[in-house]
Amino acid sequence: MQHRGPQGPGREGRGDLRAAINDLQSIAMGRKHLSLVDLEILGYRASQANMFEIVRQVLTAKRPEYARSVLSMPSLDYEMLMQWLNENIPYQYSPSLVAIADAYDALSRADVFLGRIRRKQRWSLLPHALELMTVGVASARDRPPFKFVKYRFPERIRLLSATKERRERRDRVVMAVARACHVSSRVARTEIIPFLRLIYESNKGMGRRILESMGIPERVFQGALAS
Q1: How far apart are the C-alpha atoms of 169 and 112, rounded to whole Å?
Q2: Does one domain contain both 158 and 174?
Q3: Among the three residues 118, 136, 162, which one is the final residue of a domain in this structure?
């Protein structure tokens, strides 16, 4: 399936060798070995646009409309864009501390809007968040002249990928406890699981019986405790 990306039409979303090499170089930076967990991070790439190019277009835009134009790209993941900008602003705007501060100020205000959208479903705020994320970041004062920078994959996404299995085990335990006790997941996580953990650690036999009654495999519970 073809699409229009930052370089125009005709590039296949999952057949872009250059983008794949860029991603791999970014992940491998500063490392001697890569694991399968590290490579799973590639699954977070924007499916129809090269995030390296999108970030560069925002951070090096000479005019506001150039930065804003990335919003017209198909299937742009603005949450992903937020993480990429957060990771790479210092590299592109260095050594100007003023430009870095201005860019992060705009990005932090965009994050406030996105938080309100997530909590209160106030989608009318989304245009303001996107404007700050693109035009606001690109309008930072005292930006240094253009320089080529090798952008880095967001560390936060790397960490989320590395801890994905542990978080899934924890969520599985929370949901099982919530179903067994007929409570919300929040109550299960904050009010029941701490006592269940205490019982299990002080009396393994009793703990196993309780886990079995809730349908929770012991190894899954142990994995959740480790996280």
Answers
A1: 30
A2: no
A3: 162
Residues 136 and 173 in one domain: no
30 torsion bin: left (phi>0), alpha (psi -120 to 50), beta (else): left
d(CA 15, CA 104): 34
How many residues are there in the chain? 227
Q: Which of 107, 78, 74, 80 is nearest to 92 (CA)?
A: 107
Question: Residue 52 in contact with residue 19, Cβ under 8 Å?
Answer: yes
* Tokens found for residue 6: 């930052």
- Nearest alpha-carbon partner for 193 in 181, 204, 205, 202: 181
Same-domain status, 186 and 134: no
* Torsion from C-alpha of 82, 86, 87, 91, nearest 10 degrees: 130
**Co-location of 137 and 204 in the same domain:** no
| pTM higher than 0.70 | no
Q: In this predicted model, what pLDDT tens digit does every residue of 40-86 receive, in sequence order? A: 555 544 443 488 889 999 999 999 899 999 988 877 888 889 999 99
Provide the residue range defining the domain that includes 198. Answer: 164-226
Residue bearing tokens 């957060």: 86
